[in-house]
């Protein structure tokens, strides 16, 4: 008979969420409690791989990956890269992956319902966050295990999410440009919605204010007007390439006249000159951790929900320069 996290909790005299936190070496758990849990695990022969073993023997042995309801998914390298990472982690756990993709929320919801009700998958990884939609409401209401890649707005304590600290990234972007001597900065975006935009922009604003620098938001248009800004923080790599091309058409050179810093470290960041200074958001780890957390939830659906933060790294290349 498989030893469960609840068995460990009973022997250790704690609740299941405490055992899970101890397993993940949470700072919220004392060393004394961690040692107590460790002894109970050893006594019962509990393995941290028990979740994966449970999933492998489940009804379908498959998970669903839900893409956002947008039309240009194929133009965004992030989605293909994270899907590759999810597939890689799934194979390691003997899990297969099914995809739900559509141009509207209604279309996606229909697919998700069929996949789950016909037992084609045991749970889902949702590749977008932001405001709650019909898909997330369905998953929560029907108590279907799922993990979100990104930051949630509503009911965050009911959802397991895997994400970067986008606000900190936005702050670090502004701080790096300031360290190069740039006094007037601009944040360039082609959207004013979504948690990624809001968090990165908020980090940018807070940092420019704390440094006493001038910073403003610029909407990406056919004719890009950056004013007197010499340092640009751009929402993602694809947009950054468009911005650099647009500036070139205006006779503005990157990085000689303007420095550009971006996010995602996509394949395009080092294909076109100037190579982009950009944040590597560690997409592979985002994918792997989302699978790990879903496997855990499938084995222990009553366990506590949490946000997992994946580290990022600034890749300094040719698009930024000291003034």
Question: What does this protein look like?
Answer:
Pfam families: LacI, Peripla_BP_3. With 323 residues, this protein is an alpha/beta fold. It has three domains: 5-48, no CATH class; 58-164 and 283-310, Response regulator (Rossmann fold); 166-280, Response regulator (Rossmann fold). It has helices spanning 5-12, 16-23, 31-44, 50-56, 77-92, 105-117, 134-141, 166-179, 195-211, 237-249, 283-299, and strands spanning 62-66, 96-100, 124-126, 146-149, 160-163, 184-189, 214-219, 231-234, 259-263, 277-280, 307-309, 313-315. The strands form two sheets. It has a six-stranded parallel sheet with strand order 2-1-3-4-5-11. Helix 8 (166-179) runs parallel beside helix 9. The longest helix has 17 residues, at 195-211. The radius of gyration is 22 Å and the shape is globular. It starts with a helix and ends in an 8-residue tail after the last strand. Mean pLDDT is 90; it is low at 50-58.
CATH architecture of the largest domain: 3-Layer(aba) Sandwich
Query: Taking all residues together, what is the mean pLDDT?
Result: 90
Strand neighbour order, sheet with most strands: 2-1-3-4-5-11
Please describe the biggest sheet, giving its number of strands, its sense, and whether it closes into a barrel: 6 strands, parallel
CATH first level of the largest domain: Alpha Beta
Number of helices: 11
- CATH fold annotation of the largest domain: Rossmann fold
In CATH terms, the superfamily of the largest domain is: Response regulator
What is the N-to-C succession of helices and strands? HHHHEHEHEHEEHEHEEHEEHEE
- How does the helix and strand content classify structurally? alpha/beta
Number of strands: 12
| Rg for CA atoms | 22 Å
Helix content: 40-55%
Shape: globular
- Measured distance between first and last alpha carbons: 67 Å
Strand content: 15-25%
* Domains (count): 3
Low-confidence stretches: 50-58
């Amino acid at each position: 008979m498989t030893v469960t996290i609840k068995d460990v909790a009973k022997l250790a005299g704690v609740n299941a969420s405490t055992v899970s936190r101890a397993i993940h070496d949470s700072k919220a758990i004392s060393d004394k409690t961690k040692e107590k849990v460790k002894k109970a695990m050893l006594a019962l022969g509990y393995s941290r791989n028990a979740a994966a073993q449970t999933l492998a023997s489940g009804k379908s042995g498959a998970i669903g990956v839900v893409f956002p309801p947008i039309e240009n998914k194929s133009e965004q390298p992030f989605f293909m890269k994270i899907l590759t990472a999810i597939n890689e982690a799934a194979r390691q756990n003997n899990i297969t992956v099914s995809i739900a993709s559509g141009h509207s929320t209604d279309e996606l919801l229909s697919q998700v319902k069929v996949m789950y009700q016909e037992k084609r998958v045991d749970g889902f990884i949702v590749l977008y966050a932001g405001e709650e939609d019909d898909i997330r409401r369905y998953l929560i209401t029907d108590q279907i295990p799922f993990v979100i890649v990104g930051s949630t707005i509503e009911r965050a304590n009911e959802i397991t999410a895997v994400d970067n600290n986008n606000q900190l990234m936005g702050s670090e972007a502004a701080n790096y440009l300031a360290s190069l001597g740039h006094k007037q900065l601009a944040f360039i975006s082609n959207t004013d919605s979504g948690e990624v935009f809001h968090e990165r922009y908020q980090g940018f604003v807070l940092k420019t204010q704390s440094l006493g620098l001038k910073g403003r938001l610029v909407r990406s248009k056919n004719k890009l007007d950056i004013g007197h800004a010499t340092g640009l923080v751009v929402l993602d790599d694809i947009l950054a390439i468009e911005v650099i091309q647009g500036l070139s058409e205006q006779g503005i050179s990157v990085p000689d006249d303007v420095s550009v810093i971006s996010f995602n470290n996509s394949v395009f960041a080092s294909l076109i000159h100037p190579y982009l200074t950009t944040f590597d958001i560690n997409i592979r780890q985002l994918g792997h951790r989302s699978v790990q957390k879903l496997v855990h939830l499938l084995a222990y659906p009553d366990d506590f929900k949490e946000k997992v933060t994946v580290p990022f790294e600034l890749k300094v290349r040719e698009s930024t320069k000291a003034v």
